[in-house]
Amino acid sequence: EFIRAQTVIDATGDADVAYRVGCPMLIGLEEEGHRGWMSPGAMSFVLEDVDAKAFGDYCRAGDYRFRELIGDLREKNAWPFDDNIFIAFELPNPKQYYVKVSPTTHEQGFDGTDPDVLTLGMTKGRAAVKTLFDVLREHFPGFANARLTQTAPVIGVRNTRRIIGEYQVTVDDVLAGKIFDDTVALTGYHWDMATPKAEQRLLHKVEIALPYAAIPYSCLIPQKIDNLLAPGRAISAEWDVLGPFRIMPAAFAMGQGAGTAAAMAAHSSDAMRDVDITVLRERLRAQGAIVDAPEA
Hints:
The protein is globular. Helices cover 30% and strands 14% of the residues. The protein contains eight helices and eleven strands. The longest helix has 25 residues, at 115-139. It has a four-stranded antiparallel β-sheet, covered by helices on one side. It is an alpha+beta fold. A hairpin with a 6-residue loop joins strand 5 (88-90) and strand 6 (97-101).
């Protein structure tokens, strides 16, 4: 049975719905002439029985990204990865750590919309997890007795397609700390985009004007389509802007804004772009969403 939806939210992250209905979009770093260039993927995993004190003491001693240790291992041909840093996050259980590794995916041409590439990434990713796990147990403080207890069910994809929307958020917007009249979410993350060759962009250490960036409703609205929204990492923004915008907390907030707007549009039979922004923001505030800049 075919059921025609009155409103649609494309929360695929890859703009799959928007792509199939012909919405204008950018693929990878297309605005700089590199169509299809996408950031490296990553395979996440969880380790238990990590010695949190030994790990923390080493980090606090100064080499908190393990650059020195990795440099020494590389000279001994004991570090087989392109990454020059190692990051592990402590989970609520202090002996449990979240770790990720980029296996493949520094290869130019990684396409997170291609199932064959994703399968290759998964295969190589699981092998890379085992390799990194062995290196950690042998060389990294705190990991000698660690146990591998979880690996991610899919490889993590940072960016693929982006819609060209009613508004495109620019690097200059974020740098200036621009607050939009139609803000539906805030994000507190930083620049974090890498090219397919694993190089951090020059913006990586550039400070923004505010400790947060505003996400406007208009960047969720694809051009040419009346009843579709695309929240998450497929939004209308310059490639570097995806650094602070693509992360999960920001996606949650955008999804709440999109869901509320879609319900309003379905009830009123308005096009998505014609939703009353004042009412939308009021409803989001009533739900506990953060849509206003914090008071100084």
